[in-house]
Amino acid sequence: MQDLKLLANDKRGKTELGSRRDLVGWHEVTQGSILPSFDGDAIGIALKKAEERVYSNFNSYTATVASWRVQKPVFNIDVCIDCQNCWVWCPDSSILSRDKQMMGIDYDHCKGCQVCSEVCPTNPKSLLMFNEYVQLEDALASWPEKKKKEK
Amino acid sequence: MATTSIKNLKEFSTTNDRFEGAHTLCPGCAHSMIVRELMNCTDDNLVIGSNTGCLEVSTAVYPFTSWDTSWIHIGFENAASAISGAEAMHKARKKKGTLKDNDASVKFVAFGGDGSTFDIGFQWLSGAIERGHDFTYICLDNENYANTGGQRSSATPIGSTTSTAQAGTHSYGKKEKKKDIVAIMAAHGAPYVAQLAPNKWKAMAKGFQKALETEGPCFINTVSPCCTEWRFDPKDTIGITDLATDSLMFPVYEIIDGHELNILYRPKTVIKVEEYMGAQGRYKHLFKPEYRHIIDKVQKDIDEQWDYLQRREEARI
């Protein structure tokens, strides 16, 4: 497995949604208010990778929805062919893909919808759903064998 | 204009996401697939406005925003007018030379759900397209007011049950046909109008790039299956979209300058609309013997529409 910590910005998934009661409420936000997504300049942000960006505390990148999940996808690098189907169809920007390679899953933002596992074309699938409490090593150890084509 | 390469998925995947996770859209929602694809198909600065709808309320849950670009939170109907104002202001300031970066390429995009496009924001959209501002309007068509509990909209197809047009012993759900929004927008004289689907990612990315490059108002209707209100399992979002495009319920095509129609996806084997309807809970009642004729009627309409599109493509009118 690649080191996913290198791909994570140190602000990722720090706060649970709805837990920031210390911030002002809607009634104090007037018309024309601005929430900055980044600390400092946002010019050329399209060319920066997530780990190079300086996210502000208002960016939902700093929030997490991990508690929504019942099942989690587990990624098996040995079977993956880097087709990037999961990357293009992930609704939560949770597939980490760098330099045309699939690197892993962002468990802070994944909601466990299973779309990635459905669109995975390999045999056996390189993304499978496991219960949230299953350890990654146990999940990888119980990976199914290649299925033979039915004639 | 800095478009990213969409030659194949591997090249496309080198772009950096500008739509962040931890928004509160349902798991498996197609809205965010479409928004991500739009923002990934260009490196230009984007100014985006959203009509009220699922997308707007879910991506701006205070104190968080999921957008890494300029994004305007606006009323139910006026994303099109807000974005045309922003575009006019940008044009004027560019002329005067008062912008921070005068050479930067900026694209203007408005998002709306089907409720705010077909019904509530229709007049505003029509006006913005008539005025000819340089923007792209993208309708995320999930065929009901999903944000408020699945009421009927004029995008809801005939026979579908919604919370305000319920199926039961005396009714088969909505009785009226869906508005043909693509034809209406093409009739406005918009330079680029298209209907796209997220499962055909390449056709969709190409369409988005074409719309962003085209000067003038462009309209794109995208199919966005709603797992909550269409009543299917979240994991089947792409599968349902496949059924929708293969059964020609949602043909994928574009109309350039109001007359040049190109069909962008022709299914190898056209499936019956029954298969598409059977996969969703909102059409369940149509399979009862007394409502069976509705399915036949829908199938007939689809065949006629497909025939019409093919003839139009050939005739170039």
Model description:
- The complex is a heterodimer of chains A (151) and B (317).
- Chain A is α+β, with helices and mostly antiparallel strands.
- Chain A has a single domain, classed as Alpha-Beta Plaits.
- Chain A contains 3 helices and 6 strands; from the N terminus they run βββαββαβα.
- In chain A, the strands form 3 sheets. Chain A has a two-stranded parallel sheet with strand order 1-2.
- Chain A is elongated and about 65 Å long.
- Chain A starts with 14 loop residues before the first strand and ends in a 10-residue tail after the last helix.
- Chain B is an alpha/beta fold.
- Chain B has helices at residues 9-12, 30-40, 54-59, 79-96, 114-120, 122-131, 181-187, 201-213, 237-246, 273-278, 292-315, and strands at residues 45-50, 70-73, 106-113, 136-141, 192-196, 218-223, 253-256, 260-263.
- In chain B, strands 2-1-3-4-6-5-7-8 form an 8-stranded mixed β-sheet, sandwiched between helices.
- In chain B, strand 5 (192-196), helix 8 and strand 6 (218-223) form a beta-alpha-beta unit.
- The model of chain B has no long low-confidence stretch (mean pLDDT 92).
- The interface between A and B is large, with 57 and 52 residues.
Measured by residues with Cβ under 8 Å of the partner chain's Cβ, the largest interface is: A-B, 57 and 52 residues
Biggest β-sheet of chain B, characterized? 8 strands, mixed
Structural category of chain B: alpha/beta
Please work out how many helical segments of chain B DSSP would assign: 11
What is the 3D form of chain B? globular
Keywords:
heterodimer, A: 151 residues, alpha+beta, Alpha-Beta Plaits, two-stranded parallel sheet, two-stranded antiparallel ribbon, 3 helices, 6 strands, elongated, B: 317 residues, alpha/beta, Rossmann fold, eight-stranded mixed sheet, 11 helices, 37% helix, 14% strand
